[in-house]
Amino acid sequence: MRFAAAHALCLILGGLTVAAGGDSNSPWHGHGPGAGDECTLVAKGHGIDDAPQLLHAWQKCSTISIPAHTTLNIATRLNMTGGRDKHIDLKGALRFNPDIPYWTANGFPFTFQTQITFWILGGENIVLDGGGLLDGAGQAWYDAFAANASLLRPIIMTLYQATNVLVQDIHMLNSPEWNNFVNEGKNVTFSNINIQTFSTSKNFFANTDGWDIYRSDTVTIKDSIINNGDDCVSFKPNSTNIVVSNLNCNGSHGISVGSLGQFPGVFDIVENVTSTNIQMSNAQNGARIKAWAGPNVGSGIVKNITFENFSELAVDNPVVIDQCYETNATECAAFPSNTYIQDILFKNIAGTGTSTKVASLACSPDGRCSNVQVDNFSLSSPAGAAVYACQNVNLTGNAASLFGACTVT
Ligand SMILES: *[C@@H]1O[C@H](CO)[C@@H](O)[C@H](O)[C@H]1NC(C)=O
Ligand SMILES: *[C@@H]1O[C@H](CO)[C@@H](O)[C@H](O)[C@H]1NC(C)=O
Ligand SMILES: *[C@@H]1O[C@H](CO)[C@@H](O)[C@H](O)[C@H]1NC(C)=O
Ligand SMILES: *[C@@H]1O[C@H](CO)[C@@H](O)[C@H](O)[C@H]1NC(C)=O
Ligand SMILES: *[C@@H]1O[C@H](CO)[C@@H](O)[C@H](O)[C@H]1NC(C)=O
Ligand SMILES: *[C@@H]1O[C@H](CO)[C@@H](O)[C@H](O)[C@H]1NC(C)=O
Ligand SMILES: *[C@@H]1O[C@H](CO)[C@@H](O)[C@H](O)[C@H]1NC(C)=O
Ligand SMILES: *[C@@H]1O[C@H](CO)[C@@H](O)[C@H](O)[C@H]1NC(C)=O
Ligand SMILES: *[C@@H]1O[C@H](CO)[C@@H](O)[C@H](O)[C@H]1NC(C)=O
Ligand SMILES: *[C@@H]1O[C@H](CO)[C@@H](O)[C@H](O)[C@H]1NC(C)=O
Ligand SMILES: *[C@@H]1O[C@H](CO)[C@@H](O)[C@H](O)[C@H]1NC(C)=O
């Protein structure tokens, strides 16, 4: 029955040649869905789960259209991996039904940071666009998390083993957890994404990162607006060749490399990352790099990272390197970080902090940071004269004089 219903909703594009569909041996009447077909989905309504028809269209159609004013009710998980030459034209919405017991038991799990997700999307040559909405229906999750701090909450969209992907002109609302996870991706672009997160109760929308990049190469994130409650963009282990530009981040924890080097025996690489033209407002951090130190941690390399053209407004820590992450001074001196940091540029960083300390570049002892350049800083604080702190690093650049001599531990 579901097949027949799904078929009835698959409209063949005018002008399509017969080669694209209409196999005479197919079980379909007339044109069955085949390569080149466009399928248009209509919500079943009455609380019926639309995930099966969306999955069916993903298997059978090259273009999947969700028209304006159509909200698909996604009540079961979406495994949309291994696709090829797919276009999801989302003008309407996908709303992820907040059935907490269902998702905590059935969300796709990832060992990395113990995450789960509603949706894995992967394969090759995939476009998701159309101006529509991914609605995480997060309020129920924010309220449940307030009562259960170990509650697993689903990421809206995980690009998993995805190559040559474009996500553009998409709104994301109230994710229960991270908004976008790029896991083992290559050549992925996000453009014109509008992320909004808010709570109508007293409970906060925790861990709602904009993007987390992991084991991925060649990722671009640009021209987007993010209003959330955790990292705006986070470069996790093995993020390489990344450009982030023209973002307006509000209320976040900033743009962050790391934390890296946490797990013994694991080597983390973050290399070739540029973040530029960033408006960062009401945030915990602006531009940040953090790496673990201590006795039982991992190792890695952070190399060629540029933070350029940051305009910051009311940011608690506008510029940060913390290479003694989660350790105190004694322990960091005994066990300096094995995640080396080199070739770092902070350039054209302007705006306001919230406390007097507007920059803190704290490296582990024993020369674990090298070639750190600071240029053209223009930061002030409403709390008094701006303080620039540095430790165990030789800074270069025209803003180095603001820092003066760095502490050696
Ligand atoms: C998703 O579906 C593919 C087959 O289509 C399967 O190989 C894969 O294991 C599934 N992934 C998960 C996480 O269930
Ligand atoms: C809290 O969440 C965890 C993880 O999702 C779950 O295993 C546990 O049962 C929940 N606890 C309660 C009291 O609901
Ligand atoms: C990268 O992906 C885009 C689609 O976003 C595609 O147009 C482009 O050809 C891909 N680049 C390479 C080198 O494959
Ligand atoms: C920006 O973030 C602040 C602090 O989190 C919040 O109070 C404010 O409403 C946000 N502004 C917008 C435009 O969303
Ligand atoms: C990162 O890449 C390196 C080199 O390929 C590899 O040895 C390491 O295990 C990777 N780390 C992670 C966290 O995947
Ligand atoms: C970083 O970029 C340089 C210059 O393009 C390139 O040679 C190097 O291979 C890149 N590193 C990684 C890890 O991709
Ligand atoms: C540094 O990374 C950027 C990408 O973020 C890349 O364009 C540039 O070539 C890299 N430079 C070096 C010296 O590797
Ligand atoms: C930073 O801003 C300056 C001045 O607006 C501009 O010339 C430069 O191209 C920008 N840098 C990047 C990497 O966008
Ligand atoms: C530093 O941390 C270590 C390990 O947690 C702890 O044993 C030690 O007491 C701490 N020292 C200070 C000065 O807080
Ligand atoms: C320094 O930053 C200011 C904005 O804070 C900008 O107008 C100016 O062009 C920058 N100077 C250089 C040399 O990049
Ligand atoms: C800073 O430079 C001096 C002189 O070259 C060198 O002795 C010292 O080890 C360097 N410090 C760090 C933290 O790299």
From TrEMBL:
Enzyme Commission numbers on file: 3.2.1.67
Gene Ontology MF term list: galacturan 1,4-alpha-galacturonidase activity; kinase activity; polygalacturonase activity
Chief location: secreted
Protein family according to the UniProt entry: Belongs to the glycosyl hydrolase 28 family.
Gene3D superfamilies with a match to the protein in the record: Single-stranded right-handed beta-helix, Pectin lyase-like
Domain of life, source organism: Eukaryota
Pfam families: Glyco_hydro_28
Name this polypeptide is given: galacturonan 1,4-alpha-galacturonidase
Organism taxonomic ancestry: Eukaryota, Fungi, Dikarya, Basidiomycota, Agaricomycotina
Catalytic residues of the enzyme: H253
Compartment annotation: Secreted
Described function: Specific in hydrolyzing the terminal glycosidic bond of polygalacturonic acid and oligogalacturonates.
Organism of provenance: Mycena chlorophos (Agaric fungus)
